[in-house]
Amino acid sequence: MLQKDINILAIETSCDETAAAVVRNGREVRSNIISSQIELHKVYGGVVPEIASRKHIEKINQVIEEALSVAEISLKDIDAIGVTYGPGLVGALLVGVAEAKAISFAAKKTLIGVHHIEGHISANYIENKQLEPPFLCLVVSGGHTHLVLVNDYGEFEIIGRTRDDAAGEAFDKVARAIGLGYPGGPKIDRLSKEGNGQAIQFPRAHIDGAPYDFSFSGLKSAVLNYINSLEMKHEEINRADVAASFQEAVVDVLVSRTMLAAKDYNMKKVAIAGGVAANSSLQKAMHTVCKENELEFYHPSPIFCTDNAAMIGTSAYYEYIKGISSGLDLNAIPNLKIGER
Ligand code: KG4
Ligand code: ZN
Question: What is the CATH number of the domain that holds 99?
């Protein structure tokens, strides 16, 4: 007997992207619509929560209609609605959650609440059709830096985390300090190609007794101090060298912790996820060390690294086939922990 296709309509509004997607059988992206608010928030140097929620309300219906239309599917052929319900900005999350609940109720569709970070991890399944758990995943986004053991679909165990700033946050703050604007990650990535990563020795923090944990606040302060000291001496700052040396310090720490964890936990597959996973230098360094250590390395394309709804659809699919769903009492949980429901 032919198995019926499972089509998930997914919605993501946790931060500054209003996104909807249709995903077939977990790994086939039929549409992936992202309406970015970056231009709106740029003038403020970061995301303004109130503006984000208002913009989500304005855009959400249109984005969903487009996702259905590009996928050439009507709502009646959708099997379930997946939606990010945390972590994220509460007002922003609420827009997606309310919308998903309304559609689920009106069209009598299964509702599945998805954890945003679990979604980022699942982005790896989209283009790597052969990837299956178990694997180790380094999650590096604007709000999170975690080392996660993906033991099975939907089964996650955090073994390392940042003690202060997230990796993406450090990129954004350093970018602001050298006048690159928001969001800083892609700009530092680009500028670093013109600089020397060995020019300035920035610190690599190690945390006693927590070999898989991260800390980026000392590195951020070291960059700011370096800039201030040159400014006081009226010396010129080589922004490309600062960007490249900062990026090299971040990548060094991310790669070494990940490799240590892969070895200690005897993981043969390593993946990266989240906005910072789009970083070209991180991808290159991970690729090289994984090859040296005979590990398989996986990463999503940049469009699936940063916030999108396709990854939420993939995550929702693996819940759906296990028979896991949410009730209409689903609520936004801004500080939702991985593996919690
Ligand atoms: O995953 P994401 O889109 O949103 C969150 O869930 O936070 O990640 C956004 C973060 C921002 O801090 C952004 O600067 C960073 O990812 N980012 C990058 C790159 N592209 C995005 N960081 C370094 N290099 C990049 N190419
Ligand atoms: Zn994200």
Answer: 3.30.420.40
